[in-house]
Design a protein that fits this description.
Length: 61
């Protein structure tokens, strides 16, 4: 189980690094816009991301 968790974390790092590598200017602008969102909006985005990821995992499994 620990090996799969490590693999999953490594894949997250790879995926997180794609946008800053490919288009750093647009990525920076998106981060600036994210800092202007309220805590509620950020929480809702996080919840939506978690639910989408869970749904995709369930669908693939």
């Amino acid at each position: 189980m620990w090996q799969e968790l490590g693999i999953a974390l490594c894949l997250v790092l790879v995926l997180e690094g794609i946008l800053p590598f490919l288009c750093p200017r647009q990525w920076r602008e998106a981060l600036i816009q994210l800092t202007q969102l309220s805590d509620r909006q950020l929480r809702l985005m996080g919840l939506a991301s978690m639910l989408l990821g869970t749904a995709v995992l369930y669908w693939l499994h």
